[in-house]
Amino acid sequence: QVGVTAQKTMRLLPASGKKATQKVVVGDQDGVVTCFGIKKGEAVPVFKTLPGQKIARLELGGALNTPQEKIFVAIGPEVRGFTKRGKQFLSFETNLTESIKAMYVHISGADLFLCASYIYNHYCDCKDQHYFLSGDKINDVLCLPVDKVKCITPVLACQDRLLRVLQVNSLVSLWLPAQPCQALASNIPSAGDSGEEIVYGTSDGKLGVTQITGTKPVHKWEIGNEKKRGGILCLDSFDILGDGVKELLVGRDDGMIEIYAFESADEPVLRHDYALSESIASIQGGCVGKDGYDEILAATYSGWLTGLTTEPVHREGGSGEELKLSQEMQNKISSLRNELEHLQMKVLQEREKYQQSSQSSTAVSSVPAFSVNEKFTLNKDDASYSLILEVQTAIDNVLVQSDVPIDLLDVDKNSAVVSFSSCDSEPNSNFLLATYRCQANTTRLELKVRSIEGQYGTLQAYVTPRIQPKTCQVHQYQIKPLSLHQRTHSIDHDRPMNTLMLKGQFSFAEIHSWVVFCLPEVPEKTPAGESITFYFQNTFLGTQLESTYRKGEGYFKSDNISTISILKDVLSKEATKRKINLNISYDVSEESVRHTLKLIHPKLEYQQLLAKKVHLIDALRELQVHEGNVDFLLPKYRTILEEADQLLEEYKRQPAHLERLYGMITDLFIDKFKFKGTNVKTKVPLLLEILDGCDQDGLIAFFDAA
């Protein structure tokens, strides 16, 4: 085990001889580069550097046609180079003002591609060659192999769901649907020799391949995340199955390691998977532990390095003999047991020492620092936010508090015990207080929440790990006014739209900061240029929003009048705070209200039917017990009994779904008339009565008649 590791900070050095095993080199957040080999199951250190700033990336390089065994690490804004023996040969202070987030070292060893949050720089022999300012944060970078693609072609994976391909004097962007891309890799097994294909892994767990050709990138294939596994953090290709074709190795943030094999078709097939308890920060294939047996090496977030070997663990016995563990394995297990006992003794001694020292009057208790890896993202599939908290030591409990109404949804992977405390929402606007008590050795916790659009504030998580003295870290997450909207790159312009127009004495940076306040996934940095257009889609209803703004004016178009109403309220509030006078005008489409109702109604019908079925289950089960058989029941009731467990499961997963839909229809009703200057709040009880058994036409008629 080393310190906490960032994404892509572990590599295997090439083997020095035909039969030699490979050395492992890893950089951690304490700033230490550790290189070691494995002999007889024990780690043998080669070198270790002194601690310093966090290491964000670690790559290997070397001159063309020589082994790639020079080690490059990104520390803050500088790049350092070490030989395989641990001697430092390079210390390059870049001209970047912030820390390096992503790095790629070209095979030539002379080309360095570095990315800070929004800035990409290409250096050749430590001299600045190219510079590019990205429209959103850069998550990863790589360059297509020059020996195959003749010119330097860097590819940036950005947070706004774009792969940006930089070619000489031009930028070719490629939009990726779904979620932002987090990891890139080239040298794909199936790619043949073109060298133009890259694999990408997204934050919602999809895996795909794109071919970067001269004019327009071509999308080859994408594998969805059917099993709802974690986002992809690292990729590698290596022939682990020994069939002469490289497999794709994938590491995910929920601890899954997967091996995809290219059998016959272009699209790979999942052959093996293995679950670890922490997110996989780096993954590599090679021969480390024992000569002749390949393995997959993974580095996890808290710094564990784990190997999965192809070496058979059991020795084949004779006909009557049981399978026996090989002698080597038995020795390994007994040495591990001894080591554990030794550690437990040491812990007890240290604890006693701590208790004694804490009773003396001069002792001062210091707060232990611990790092938390967090991710708060909107899921498109069920319009909910997932909050993932990962701590380097075991979590004791997490307290979740919110000053806006939100629903906590069930997560299958979550084994923590949740308890709710009653809270007073009036004086100190407290809408949610829930405690998750974790089982021993839980280092990762996943929660799901659903917010209500128009209600905005802060969600806070108080994380307390199992360390002495007890300490707690608070992490805050903004719930934005239009929190269920997600960035997209195109919308349907044929829908009936409502328009909101703003004019006033505000700068481009000011209106951009208001849009950042209202909507998720908008880059905080003010965009380059005079004006900008962003498109969004509501993940719950499928309605859309187009926002275009520049200095002194802003236009917002949506097919949902409630979206426009929320924007009008929030933007005028923000402008008032800064004492800016706004001239607000709007153009409302009657047709858009009918259009939105048509989008909501199928969801409403489905949820009403589900609720009715769930209410019937108990009575039907009682009948079944009394009568013994249920053949006399109508087929639809028999179906409810057969599907009872699935229905209950679905109902439990979405606790307040029906109330949310009722709320949206009520808001739509109030907003429609608010723009006409009429208050219809007295008619809301009548609307709610109608909703219970109303068809779509009846609902539209009520809206028109009111």
From TrEMBL:
Keywords assigned by UniProt, alphabetized: Coiled coil
Record has S-adenosyl-L-methionine as a keyword: no
Keyword Coiled coil among record annotations: yes
BBS7 platform domain location: 485-587
Any single biological process term in GO: intracellular protein localization
GO cellular component, one term: membrane
Signal peptide, first to last residue: none
Origin superkingdom: Eukaryota
Coiled coil region boundaries: 326-353
Domain called BBS7 beta-propeller: residue spans: 10-310
BBS7 GAE domain location: 368-477
InterPro entries with a match to the protein in the record: Bardet-Biedl_syndrome_7_prot, BBS7_GAE_dom, BBS7_hairpin, BBS7_pf_dom, Beta-prop_BBS7, WD40_repeat_dom_sf
UniProt domain BBS7 helical hairpin: residue ranges: 590-703
UniProt-recorded name of the protein: Bardet-Biedl syndrome 7 protein
Originating organism: Manacus vitellinus
